[in-house]
Every structure is written in C-alpha cells, then in structure tokens.
User: What shape does this take?
Amino acid sequence: MAENSSTQALFDLWKKQIEEGTQAWARLVGQMSQSGQAPDPFQFWRPLMDQGIAAWSKLFTQVPATPELLAQWKQFLDQWIAAWGKVLEQAMGTEAFSQALGKYLDQWLSLQGPVKKVADETTEATLQAFGVPSRSQVVGIARQLVDLEDRLEGLEDRLGALMARMDDLHKSLEDHEAAAARRAAERVAQ
Assistant: This one.
C-alpha cells in the first residue's frame, strides 16, 4: 500500500510539473514573441526534463518496475505529450509567434547570404587552382554555344532564303531565255 501511495505522490508531482511547465512555456512564448525573438524550447524544457527524469529514476531504483508502475509511467508520458502538444499548438497559432518566426528566418537568411558567397568564392578558387572549370565557366561556355547555334541557324535561314531567291532568279532567267528563243524562232519562221 505504501508503494502505491509513493507512486501516486510522484505521479501527482509530475502532473503539477506539467501544469506549471505548460504555464511557464506559454509565458516564455509570449515574452519572446513580444521581444521579436523566436522562442527556444530548450531554454525551458531542459531543466524540466532533467528534474522529471531524476525523480522517475529515483523511484525506479527504490521500487521494482511493476506493471502498475510502468502503466502509470506510460499514462504520464501520454498526458505530458498531449499537454505539450496543446501548448505548442496554441503558441504557434498566434500572430506574434508567426512574426517572431518570420524575423528569425529573415535573420538566418541574411546570415546565410554572405556565407554562401564566401563558399562560392572558395570553391571557384579551388577549382581554378586545380585547373577544373567552375560551374559559372561551364555555364558561360554553354551560353556561348547556344548563342553560336542561334547565329548558325540565322545564317542557315538567310542562306536558304538566298538560295530560294537564286533559284527563282535562275528560273526567271531560263524562262526569259526560252521566251527569247521562241521569239527568235518565230521571227525566223516568218
């Protein structure tokens, strides 16, 4: 009976920790959102987890792991996960959280731009040192080849038009010569 009451007391302690933790998390999210920072769950979660795990570890070392104790442990975990899910859902559904997360992402992206630029420059220098063409050089050559292809197609089109015009001129000349020969034949026949 004493074993069951100590287990129940520990379980009640954990329930209290969950409720207080939920309220503290909600306050933390509210404060962080107002200051424009994205909330850091580890700032709050780590001490709460350490305290809870220490209490359960102490219980498991003092009392044998009975099915009843393990069932209470599972029940506690289920309730804890549900409570955190509810709090996080409420916190993340607010406009303040959205704005704070947006600011955080903007800051992160503004930091990534210079890092990417330095990485690209370093890669370019390394490739140049090894005598390997970089992506930008390959893209430049590809653009030149496409431009050259376009020019060749344009020349082919113009050459085709000139050939067709020359064929037309040649046909006109043949027709003109044939007409001149007929007129000359008609004059001789007269």
User: Anything to note?
Assistant: The chain is about 90% helix and 0% strand.
